[in-house]
Amino acid sequence: MTGSQPISKVSIVVSRGSLEGIYPGLIMANGARMEGIEANLFFTFFGLYGVLKNYNDKIRVATVGNPAMRVPSAKGLPMPTLLGAIPGMSAIATWMMNKEMEKIDIPPIPEFLEMIHDAGAGIYACKATVDMFHLTKDDFIPQMDKVLTVGEFYEQSAGGQIIFT
Predict the structure, then answer these.
(1) Are 76 and 90 contained in the same domain?
(2) How much is the pTM?
């Protein structure tokens, strides 16, 4: 694109607590850092489970209400929402997704967050959500940098692109 400025900074908002809600933000932040782009992850609402130390290794695929869910692959037949409600379906879908991600070297969420943080990305939690869920700093992974208000998040994001996943 001629005349356009290259992206130098992104702030990625992660608001969904499912596997398919958290991984896009992690992949985008990792890709940004690999390209030398400043990256910040802001976890809010149920996305906050991605940075909770007792939960982020238990994130599952949301099988109910996902009209794009296909089995056994993206080219497979659509899975009716009713089937997603059957006990164990989320666990099976999560297991399948994790196996496929492992094949292409996408690490589990806790390891991925550590890699992204070590690469220089900022990892933040939403203060309103932290307060609403009655959480403390001890509930979070050690890589979480700070709890921010929305205003502080906007200040942190100044001059960059804000992306919602």
Answers:
(1) yes
(2) 0.86
Q: Which domain holds residue 92?
A: 60-107
Residue by residue, DSSP assigns 54-123 as TTTTS-----TT-TT-EESSTTSEEPPHHHHTSTTHHHHHHHHHHHHHHHTTPPPHHHHHHHHHHTT-EE
Domain boundary among 107, 122, 142: 107
| Of the ranges 11-15, 71-75, 77-81, the best mean pLDDT one | 11-15
Q: What are phi and psi of 126, to 5 degrees?
A: -80, 125
18: domain CATH number is 3.40.1260.10
73 contact partners, CB below 8 Å, separation of at least 6: none
pLDDT above 80: residue 75:
no
